[in-house]
User: Which sequence fits this backbone?
């Protein structure tokens, strides 16, 4: 039984604010983690900021926690078609613009030496990137930050097939979390690349914990949900060393600050899940949430290009970095206002119209099939083989009789 009355899904403004916090963490990491002069490593120019800002990469983990919470919340009461439409119309418009804009900037300004991004995308690279499937296609990303989108897509696919297809319910969501946790725990033993590709065990604990915390928010906490969150947290702690080691840096990195940051991310989402922030409805938080996705997509290659050129021109980093971050936030708002919103609306309406056409055509096909089905009104019922044999004998007898002349 739920420990508290069921809450109906509604937009939680605090989550919008937390998404912007996660995005700014990633921005900070990328903006202090560059070789500004193309010769020396980042810590040569900003020794303290680089060591602290490096941990901003864990904003991605906060993103994934929020994503698990929000996707479960927004899919409640939706069918599979509506779920797919909502995800496509949400992800692609800003992404398409970001791919084109980033490619244009790279083409015009070139790729600065000494930066972490050295690839100059070709025409085919850009086309594949526009599908958001460049990572499984082994095509270099126009911007390295796109790797997180493939993790999101895998989560959406798993959740759609395992939960949304049959209808989102409390029980199905819990079973999904438990099943995904089992696969995550066993994946190192199984050693299957296919399972790792689909289940995404490195980041699965964050999506799973987010789902469980939404269930806490809607239905109230219980021992099963607490257990799912606790095990997800343990798995996330276990994976942090490998996460940090995957980023090769020229200075020693300690894992304990990462554990504190990720534990704090779990804690803050739990505060939201337990309802302590339900009354916070500041409108600016919704605006902050709207900036997050375009900011994340635009900030790295475009922003670091601005930083490198500004540094070469002699501008001081202490104000160049925050000024670039503010400029990227302004650009993100403009993209949201004049690209993402109108294009998302048109894409959503077009997909809904297409889905309605498909459903109508399917209904006509079903009705046509039913009309020709056995026992349909107005059509003879098909005979069994035994009935066919008797009918053939009667027909043969009738033909024989018609050929015999009876005596007068």
Assistant:
């Amino acid at each position: 039984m739920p420990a508290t009355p069921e809450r109906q899904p509604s937009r939680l403004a605090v989550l919008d604010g937390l998404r912007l916090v996660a995005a700014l963490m990633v921005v900070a990491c990328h903006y202090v983690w560059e070789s500004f002069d193309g010769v020396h490593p980042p810590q040569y120019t900003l020794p303290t900021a680089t060591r602290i800002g490096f941990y901003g990469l864990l904003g991605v983990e906060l993103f994934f926690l929020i994503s698990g919470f929000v996707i479960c919340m927004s899919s409640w009461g939706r069918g599979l078609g509506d779920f797919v439409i909502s995800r496509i119309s949400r992800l692609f418009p800003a992404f398409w613009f970001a791919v084109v804009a980033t490619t244009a900037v790279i083409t015009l300004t070139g790729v600065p030496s000494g930066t972490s991004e050295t690839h100059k995308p070709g025409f085919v690279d850009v086309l594949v990137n526009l599908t958001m499937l460049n990572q499984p296609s082994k095509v270099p990303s126009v911007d390295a930050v796109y790797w997180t989108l493939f993790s999101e897509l895998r989560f959406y696919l798993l959740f759609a097939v395992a939960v949304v297809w049959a209808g989102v319910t409390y029980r199905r969501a819990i079973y999904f979390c438990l099943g995904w946790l089992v696969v995550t725990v066993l994946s190192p033993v199984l050693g299957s690349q296919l399972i790792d590709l689909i289940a995404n065990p490195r980041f699965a604990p964050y999506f799973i914990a987010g789902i469980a915390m939404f269930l806490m928010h809607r239905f109230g906490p219980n021992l099963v949900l607490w257990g799912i969150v606790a095990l997800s947290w343990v798995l996330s702690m276990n994976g942090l060393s490998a996460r940090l080691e995957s980023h090769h840096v020229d200075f020693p990195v300690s894992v304990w600050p990462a554990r504190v940051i990720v534990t704090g991310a779990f804690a803050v989402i739990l505060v939201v899940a337990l309802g302590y922030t339900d009354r916070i409805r500041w409108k600016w938080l919704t605006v902050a949430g709207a900036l997050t996705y375009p900011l994340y997509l635009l900030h790295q290659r475009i922003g670091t290009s601005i930083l490198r050129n500004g540094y070469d021109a002699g501008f001081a980093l202490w104000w160049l970095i925050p000024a670039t971050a503010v400029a990227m936030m302004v650009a993100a708002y403009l993209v949201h206002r004049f690209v993402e919103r109108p294009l998302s609306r048109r894409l959503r309406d077009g997909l809904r119209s297409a889905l309605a056409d498909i459903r109508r055509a399917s209904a006509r096909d079903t009705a046509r099939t039913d009309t020709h089905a056995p026992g349909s009104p107005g059509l003879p019922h098909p005979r069994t083989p035994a009935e066919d044999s008797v009918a053939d004998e009667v027909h043969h007898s009738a033909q024989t009789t018609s050929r015999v002349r009876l005596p007068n």
Notes: The radius of gyration is 29 Å. Residues 94 and 293 are 8 Å apart (CA to CA). DSSP finds 15 helices and no strands in the chain.
